[in-house]
Amino acid sequence: MKIGVVGSGIMGNGIAQVFAMSGHTVILSDLNKQALDKAELVINQNVERVLKKSNQLDKKQTVLDCLTYTTDNSLLKDADLIVEAVTENMEVKRSVFKELDSFCTSKTILATNTSGLSITELANMTNRPGKVCGMHFFNPVPVMKLVEIVRGAETTDETIQFVQSLTKEMEKVSIVAKDSPLFVVNRILIPMLSEAMFVYGEGIASAEDIDSGMVYGTNQPIGPLRLADMIGLDTLLYVQETLLEETGDSKYRIPPILKQLVRAGHYGRKTNKGFYTYE
Ligand code: 3HC
Fold first, then answer.
1. Is 24 a catalytic residue?
2. Which example biological process does GO assign this protein (predicted)?
3. Per-residue pLDDT tens for 150-206?
4. Which end of the chain has fewer surrounding CB within 10 Å, N or C?
5. Where, residue-wise, is CATH 3.40.50.720 in the chain?
6. What residues line ligand 1, using a CB cutoff of 6 Å?
7. Do 131 and 156 meet the contact criterion of CB atoms below 8 Å apart?
8. Which residue puts its alpha carbon closest to atom 44 of ligand 1?
9. Active-site entry in 136, 174, 194, 266
């Protein structure tokens, strides 16, 4: 199959990698050439890391040959599936969907990796709402097994089945959710991360102790503040704003410390500073 991925950030490059590793032809596009160059480097390293573990380094070049990097979205026009993974902002995503719909062939399925924005609203930007769905991967994409498939108001069963079978082929597990703010996993996860930020912001414990508490007390692989840094605090702020705006429920109020860190340009690992400082 020919797969397009739009947006070469943390999620986009991971998504491109996993499709290439299951043998698909992948075109990764981004408006920013520097971001694409960085994505290519990261993908090369991560493909090597995964293949080394299974003693299959000889397959590295075959996987890398499946990938093309471009700043020209129109190369995606005859893709079977395009996964959009641009910044978590409805206006930006709406314009990407409108643009892709204008030149893609009628067979192309348009999926979004949004963390929780409305699939139905994005589908409404296109003339193919039945062929639009959510395909929500988890970070780090090559490691995390889940893909949350989200059904918009008009998504057809054929679209869901197509995406489900591709997910299975990549040896990932899928769940299907209705279009609703933050779907299933983030709806449950984000309030937990948010509460950790309130505990930190209220000075109840240090970041290290909050994380140790959750790692050793609830068997999570990493603590909530370290996970927040890994996801990206800018992304988390957008996601939390969506939850609060869409539900209007004050229980989803945004921790002041999250706003403050984002306003200071500290987005977590991607800027080397968030709740922790990274080398
Ligand atoms: N590519 C390939 N392999 C990777 C990788 C990557 N990017 N990152 C880590 N790995 C592999 C390592 O090679 C290692 O493999 P090994 O055990 O076979 O040697 C394994 O993962 C563990 O890595 P590390 O030892 O370096 O570090 P950790 O033990 O801390 O594990 C982790 C890393 C798997 C990311 C673990 O910390 C974890 O599971 N964290 C929680 C992740 C999570 O919850 N993600 C979901 C976030 S929510 C989200 O994405 C939704 C969005 O919409 C907000």
1. no
2. fatty acid metabolic process
3. 999 999 999 999 999 999 999 999 999 999 999 999 999 999 999 999 999 999 999
4. C
5. 2-178
6. 46, 49-50, 53, 115, 138-140, 142-144, 186, 189, 221-222, 227, 231
7. yes
8. 227
9. 136
Residue 272 alpha carbon to ligand 1 centre in Å: 17
Give residue 74 CA to ligand 1 midpoint distance, Å.
33
91 carries an active-site annotation: no
Q: Specify the CATH number of the domain 187-269.
A: 1.10.1040.10
Contact in structure between 81 and 53 (CB atoms under 8 Å):
no
Integer CA distances (angstroms), 61 to 23, 56, 141, 143, 149, in order: 12, 11, 20, 21, 31
Residue 22, marked binder: no
Predicted TM-score (pTM) of the model is 0.94
Annotated binding residue 131: no
Which one is the CATH code of 2-178: 3.40.109.30, 3.20.20.140, 1.10.357.10, 3.40.50.720?
A: 3.40.50.720
Q: DSSP 3-state assignment of 109? A: strand
270 known member of a binding site: yes
Q: Which two three-digit tokens encode residue 151?
A: 């059904």
236: CA distance to ligand 1 center in Å? 18
Which helix (H) or strand (E) is 190 found in, with range?
A: helix 185-201
User: Catalytic site residue 186?
Assistant: yes
Query: Residue 210 — pLDDT band, cuts 50, 70, 90?
Result: very high
Q: Return residue ranges of the chain for CATH 1.10.1040.10.
A: 187-269
